[in-house]
Amino acid sequence: xxxxxxxxxxxxxxxxxxxxxRFRELGIVVFLIAVLGMTIAFxxxxxxxxxxxxxxxxxxPLLTVVAMGEMMVIITRGIDVSIGSMLAFAGIVVGMIFRxxxxxxxxxxxxxxxxLGALLGAVNGGLIAWLKIPPIITTLGTLSVYRGLVxxxxxxxxxxxxxxxxxxxxxxQRGPFGIQWVPYVVLIAVVVAFLAxxxxxxxxxxxxxYAIGGNPEAARLRGVPVETTTFSVYLITGALCGLAGILYAxxxxxxxxxxxxxGFELTVIAAVVVGGTNVFGGSGSVLGVFLGCLLLGTINVAxxxxxxxxxxxxxxxxxxxxxxxxxxAVIRRELRRATTGE
Amino acid sequence: xxxxxxxxxxxxVDSSLDQPMEGPKKKRIMNVVVQPEFITVILLILxxxxxxxxxxxxxDLDFLLNYTSLFIEVGIMALGMTFIIISANIDLSVASxxxxxxxxxxxxxxxxxxxxxxxxxxxxxxxxxLGSFNGLLITRMKLPALAVTLATLALYRGAAQxxxxxxxxxxxxxxxxxxxxxxxxxxxxxxxxxxxIPLPLVLFVILAIVLGILLHKTTFGRWVYAxxxxxxxxxxxxxxxxxxxxxxxxMMGLLSGLAGLIMVSRLSVARYDHARGWELDVITAVVLGGxxxxxxxxxxxxxxxxFLLIIFLRTGMGVANVKAESQLAVIGTLLIVAILVSxxxxxxxx
Lengths: 342, 350
What we know:
- The structure holds two protein chains of two kinds.
- Chain A is mainly α.
- Chain A is built from 13 helices and no strands.
- The longest helix of chain A has about 40 residues, at about 1-40.
- The longest helix of chain B has 27 residues, at about 240-265.
- Chain B is globular, with a radius of gyration of 21 Å.
- The N and C termini of chain B lie close together (about 10 Å).
């Protein structure tokens, strides 16, 4: 008898847990609709203007691509604040190649950017995984080291729009089959998100990432290669930043050593935690983070459309991160209370 | 690491500083050598020698003293950060707190025409509030300090930007007559009568002594170490862990606010981008000074020595015409190397 009620109790609480877990991604959607609703209330034709849709869609690729890596890092209980500098480094070096070697193949250029990013990410990963330097210290240090490298390599000079190949800029202007609304860069971001989803869900490496975040010691005892996996997530993040550097050049048509990617880490971390990734590590989903990116992109464009000065941007990111982290903590506490039946 | 180990460790620190120690002489010397502070002091001497070889200006005492007051904000915040990191926490929002307090002071004085005295009092109240906001989120909501202060890093500087925009206080467009009061500006040009010691440096030394006593000679200080070594154990041992954490974050806010007022006084304008990215320098100073990034170990003396080392390096690079971005890269490298060395010496010590 006692066992039955016990099972029932557990059954019921896991129902609540499941419902709450579903509610999480729903919560972002609700918030997204609220933001859209508020904007439409002031600007009824907000979603009817193609330019607004395009702005939102063009905002997503950069954010999504890097956020997929940052999400994996945060799932392993780490953090990477050097992403903006890695993005700028890859962007500026590839930009210089395009400038100095006219007619350089853009796909080869993109590949070089990804490899450069991976290299910088590998330095982060090596320091963190094997030399045991805390992630925040490592990446806070490399944030300025890599930014310094950007200035040294570029000699402080910007890559001007006339040096970025037209074919690369077209990635942000044209889509397949002549569809203008969904440019290639958006497709690239969607492909990256799908790959991240498949990797995290169906591969041993992906499962190891969650295992480490859930309990590093237990993961080690169960034979998860903790060091190699930790190294890999920073390497992947670096590579994705490299790709984002190319997307940046495509989207904005220039790369500036002192401007490109500065403060980008805050935007990305905001998107990742708004997407429901646990700051204590162990959980996070690609769908959630993708919605988080969409939400941040929408907020950003909505602020501009509503005529809110750009000086508000930083404060909004800070507030959004704080809100997301706090709400997440409250939900988790309630969830724990529900499952332990207190 | 257990509490016993910390105790033995802290006695080790104390005895190596002020008591003759039992045991063979060789071991005693080895104990001093593997203290992280020892390495900092050696680096400090090397930097001093290196700097004086590179440039004759470096040995000019007046120049060096004046240069110190250009970075005094870093030193003041590093003192508070020592408490934070020893307690196994981190505060990334210090430089943003500095900027916000400065910006609010500017708005209070110019836009709301408050007297400067009241402005300063309100600025300190705000500093304490910003620090305790961090502290409350960490203790009440049980959120990681890293996540909270990363959010407030953006929020506080963002708020400063909303308040004063890309402009400054006094605004660029205003007449040259609208300025902060004379007695408030130019704190770095005030010297101890008859000497060339600038006032900010005196302030820093006093703060270092007071906070050094608080950390090393009081129960409160021992609580901070206990929390950093093992918070759970400290709580069972009766340490009011939540109150202590709240107190050190509030103190951190106050010190950042003080740094903010000093910076506004020094530059005679308030801007939202004051000290942007300086959390790197502050954390580097603390870690370079031998404070264990995992908590439980560190000294005010080490932080002060590391702060001087950073100033020597910055001065040296300044007179050698190294660009600002490259200077930042050097500081970043220094931070990573400091932890590497600290990890290494820890392995030798244990």
